Structure formats: C-alpha cells, structure tokens
Amino acid sequence: MERISIEGAAAALLARLSPLPGRESVPLSALPGRVLAEDVSARLDVPPFDRSPLDGYALRSADLAGAGPGAPALLRVAGTVYAGGTFPGAVGPGEAVRIMTGAPIPAGADCVVRQEDTDGGREQVRVYSSLHAGQNLCLRGEDVTAGALLFRRGERMDWTHIPALAGQGVTEVAVFPLPRAAVLSNGDELVSPGAALGPGQIYDSNGPMLAARLASLHARPLLLPGGTDDPGVLARRLAGDLEKCDLAVTTGGVSVGEHDYLLRAAELLGAEVLFHGVAAKPGSPALAFLVGGKPVVALSGNPFAAAAMFEVLARPALERLAGAAHPLPRRLGAVLRGEIGKPSPVRRLVRARLEGGEVHVAPQGHSSGMALGLAGCNCLIDLPAGTPALSGGAAVEVILL
Ligand code: AMP
Ligand code: MG
Q1: Peptide bond into 47 cis (omega under 30)
Q2: Ligand 1 centre and the CA of 5: distance in Å?
Q3: Tens of pLDDT along 317-332?
Q4: 3-state secondary structure of 235
Q5: Ligand 1 centroid vs 302 CA: distance in angstroms?
Q6: Contact indicator for 53, 212 with CB cutoff of 8 Å
Q7: What gap in Å lies between CA 255 and CA 283, rounded to an integer?
Q8: Taking the CB of residue 379, how many other CB atoms lie within 10 A of it?
Q9: Could you please report the per-residue DSSP string of 99-154?
Q10: Total-model pTM
Q11: Residue 6 CB: number of other CB atoms within 10 A?
C-alpha cells in the first residue's frame, strides 16, 4: 500500500467512524471531560432580575443632579433590601433604599450609588457624587438571555462550563458514552511491569503509556497483558477485545520484520484495511483496520513512535467515537528555541515543550526507541518533508498533546 499522509490517514479513519450510540445523563459534578450529546439552551435570564453589583443605595439619578464632594444630596432612607429579599414598595423622589450586593433593584430606582460615596446614613443619607440613569446596575439577562444557545452538541465540557449550566438550575446534562479502548502491546520480548525480567526481555512501556493517555483523553482504557508474536493468537485476542471495547490500539508488530504479524492478524479477521504506512516519522508503519466496523489502530512498538502516531491517528478516531465536534489535535505556530540538528527528508514529528509561544526541543535522546525524552513534553513539532536542520528562531508548527 502507498504511504498516506497523516491527514489522509486520520481522514480515512474519521470517514468510517461515528459518535457512539447511546446517551448518558450525568450530574454536573461528573461533567468535566464529557462531550455534550445535545445542544444546551438557556431556559432563564441570568441574572433573573436587575440587581445591585455593590453595597450602597438604590435611588433616582435625577435626585443627585449637581451633587458632589462639597455639595451632597440629602435623601430619606426608605428601607433596606438584602440579597435574597425584595423591597416591597417603590423608591419615590427624594428617597433612597439601602441595598446590598446581589439584592434586586427596587422599583422606581434607576441607579445605585456605592456606600463609599455616601455618609452611610440609616435614616437619611448624604450622597457625595452624581450618577446617571443605569449606573451600577447589573441588568436582568446581561449574562445569559433565555433561549440563547449556551453550548453545542460535540463540545467537550470542563469545569469552566459548569457555572453557566448551574446558573440555569440544570442538574444533569446528556452526554455521549465514554469510548472503551483496548490497549494491546505485541512482542514476545515484552514483560508487564511488576514481573521479573528474563534475558532478552524488556518491560512493556507502551501499554501503560497508552492506557494513561487514553484515560487523560477521557476514554475508558482496558489494558491487556502483552500479546505474542503469533498471528492466530493475535487475531483471536483482538476479536475478543473488540467485543468489550469500541476501539483497540495496539503497538508492535506492524513493520516488515519476520514477527510483524499485525497485518496477518487483520487478514485472518477479514478486516478492512484503511491504511498501512504513513508518510511521516517516527512510526511510519502504522496500520489501521476495521473489524466489524470497530477501528484497530496498530502502531509501531518504539515508544515514541507509538506516542506520536497515537496522537495524530488514534486520538482523532477516539475523539470521533466520543462525539467530539473537533476530533483533530490543535496546531499552533511557535518559535523554535534550541536547534534541530538533523534535516528531515521525510516529514517528522519531534517531541518538545511549548511555553509562551516558544518551543523547546527535549534535551534527551530523540530516537524513537527512547522514552525518557517524552517526559514533560506537551507538543510535537511537525516538520514537513524537506525541512533542513533548523536553528533557534525558526518558525515551526506544533501539534498540542
Ligand atoms: P516493533 O514495532 O514490534 O518492531 O518494535 C520496535 C521496537 O520497539 C523493538 O525494539 C521492540 O522491542 C520495542 N517495543 C515494542 N513494543 C514495546 C513496548 N510495548 N514497550 C517498549 N518497547 C517496545
Ligand atoms: Mg515486535
């Protein structure tokens, strides 16, 4: 198969996937991380009444004409209104009502003078400034108007969305189910962390990494014990895993080595191969196929290759299943700090850390088999094919992790 671009590969997956069926109703406390399954519109004006944004006196601006520091206006205090209460009457000419922050503006008043600009009087009050109508009023519906669209289907919620929803009196919201993702590391050399390491063996770094990454993306990972380099066993395990899950991410066994059996397993399953080989490094042998409509994204076993291709291939697939309206990772322009000494004849993803618009290349080893340099990274620098060695100050594009 021809090597496909990263964009083409992601598009091939997205074209075949839809948001998971089913809806869940979750309380606001469990909403962060979830994707809205329905548009949410406002039922109420917020605030639901005109209110005072400060402690002071509600009054008629006309009564303050000409008032100033040396020439206070003198008004009769007709009562007090607290937050949570209401003032029963109306503010007449020459009157003021003492008002606390959050209290409804009494009828008749058209402004609020702050307490600091008065003598704080209880029976009568001297006001040392003049105001115009509408000053210091927080108007009904100025935050949210009833009927307005608050958030759209496909938007992922976080804590910042909560006050607007709670302000509507909403307790539960309809969201898409969380995708369940099987993680399967392939390789006869792999041992799960915790077990003893024999000669020629290494610990499975990818399984725990991808399970953690999936959890951070609000999927429900199912970390499976390492798979063997045997196509029949792999095929059976994958079929079993996909019964319990909505997608599978595997690592290892996708290149052209003698024990690279993922493609063979896909064939045994009668899978529809979407692509095999992506025109970017590291992780170019990435493979994706559908088993009964469920996607399997099979990544190369080198930990950084698996991490990089997971972000640009598996993550969009996951986001689509999750119902997210924007499944592709975010990209930003940035200025390179430090240098990238090697030219990139093939498109290359380089792990890095973005801070304040500047992108710092991880100081540790860059080989795709090295995992330590990934620690603390928050982006991948996306170097197009044919990029020469770059020095500090170069403009680059990054993919946010
Ligand atoms: P493969 O993609 O199977 O050819 O593996 C490429 C390299 O990555 C080999 O050195 C493997 O031993 C190593 N590798 C494969 N899977 C993992 C894993 N789960 N954790 C750490 N290293 C791995
Ligand atoms: Mg292998």
Answers
A1: yes
A2: 23
A3: 999 999 999 999 999 9
A4: helix
A5: 5
A6: no
A7: 9
A8: 26
A9: E-TTPBPPBT--EEEEGGGB---SSEEEE-S---TTTT-B-TTSSB-TT-EEE-TT
A10: 0.93
A11: 22
